[in-house]
Amino acid sequence: MENIKTIEKKLAECKKNGKEKVEILNELARAYLGTSPEKVIEYGNQALELSQEISYIEGETQALTNIGTGNFYLSNFDKSLEYFLKSLKVIEKTGNKKSIAGSLGNVGNIYWSIGNKDKALEYYKKSLFIQKEIGDKRGSAKSLNNIGTVYGSLGKYDKALENILESLKIMEEIGDKKHIAGTLSNIGEIYYSLTNYDKALDFFLKALQLYEKLSEKYSLTITLNAIGSVYLQQKNLEKASFYLERSMKLAKEIKSKDMIQRSYQYLSELYSLKNDHKRALEYFKLYSEVKDSIFTEESTKKIAEMQTKYETEKKEKEAEIFRLKNIELAKANEYIQKKNKELEIHEEHINLINKILQHDLTNNLSIISSAIRLFRKSNDMKMIDEILKSTEKS
Can you tell me the distance from the alpha carbon of 226 to that of 237, in angstroms, rounded to the nearest whole number? Predict the structure, then answer.
């Protein structure tokens, strides 16, 4: 927090509305990352307004990125993508490859968070290609870590560890403790998926020590949840409860809906293992409510539309350049792109419908199942109402 006070002092002393003030505002926004996403957005908006007023493109792109990141931490994924794509469009005009790679990685993070692994991997690889081309070690390490995480979720554990360990080596070379912690946590996730819970716990605890020193509340929340989930698997319910309750408290403090819903999910599992089905059902309902508030049909549709718009504009720009070189070939290319885009839109609609159906039916069936177990134990007729309500909803 001393760093934040120093930057706030610099801001108070800066009287002129110029580039220096924009840079201080953006620096202050970044300082609040991981502790107060709302402050990130607040100072990011101030920097954005001033940047546009004085036509300072570098400050504008950083402000847009900061606002996108703040919304990402608050699980406002549609707004986050909106600002990341705005930033990417402005950066592409400047040709700054390092910034372009960073923006591509940010877009990849959105797709990873909403479960679109193929799209996340596509953007992470685009980002890595540019970072290796320009020799950006830190950026390359972050992309390798992200790529490894996606491979792990796809069950390709050898490729996952290969990428993440390469990332860890680079981060240790440059001494980036924050990202060393993230890499350690991701290695823990791989071992967790391989059901090697002792090894997973070892890596999660190492990551936890680093995050506690860095006061990274957002990352700390993720790691506490991960440790709690290991103890759930090991049936050590007392320790699981300790870490999950701590994670939930932090998640509420930083107002991260994504982290809150994860905590509720694990706490539901915890009380189910304790045979306290009433509390298990309560937490499951809370989990479902928060998840529904994140992944609404409207926000998912917005994300699909924004991505389609961005890709369409990008392809149209490329097609125009090509048309100037060869008009006839450009016309043919434009027709093909249009047909491909129609197919992409149809595919996105189908994927959206599938996701909604699977998500809603699974939630309702889980509620019905829990209500039946409770009814058998207590003969509470309220459980019948819950069953009927969930059946009608399905």
Answer: 14
Q: Would you state the torsion angle of the CA atoms of residues 221, 223, 224, 228, taken in this order, to the nearest 10 degrees?
A: 140
C-alpha span between 118 and 115 (Å, rounded)? 9
The token duo for 141 is 């390490």
Rounded to whole angstroms, the Cα distance separating 296 from 194 reads 32
Show pLDDT as tens, one digit a residue, over the chain (394 residues). Answer: 458 889 988 888 888 888 999 999 999 999 998 788 899 999 999 999 999 999 999 899 999 999 999 998 888 888 888 898 888 888 888 888 998 999 899 889 888 888 888 999 999 999 999 999 999 999 999 999 999 999 998 999 999 999 999 999 999 999 888 889 989 998 999 999 999 999 999 999 999 999 888 877 888 999 999 999 999 999 999 999 999 999 999 989 888 888 898 899 999 999 999 999 999 999 899 988 888 877 665 555 556 666 666 566 556 555 655 555 656 666 667 767 777 776 777 677 676 667 666 767 777 777 777 778 777 877 777 778 777 877 887 7
Burial class (CB in 10 A: 0-12, 13-18, 19+), 160: buried
Helix (H/G/I), strand (E/B), else coil: 234: coil
Q: Is the pTM of this model over 0.85?
A: no
| DSSP-assigned letters across all residues of 9-58 | HHHHH--S-SHHHHHHHHHHHHHTTTT-HHHHHHHHHHHHHHHHHHT-HH
Gap between the Cα atoms of 247 and 212, Å rounded: 13
State the Cα–Cα distance between residues 54 and 49, nearest whole angstrom.
9
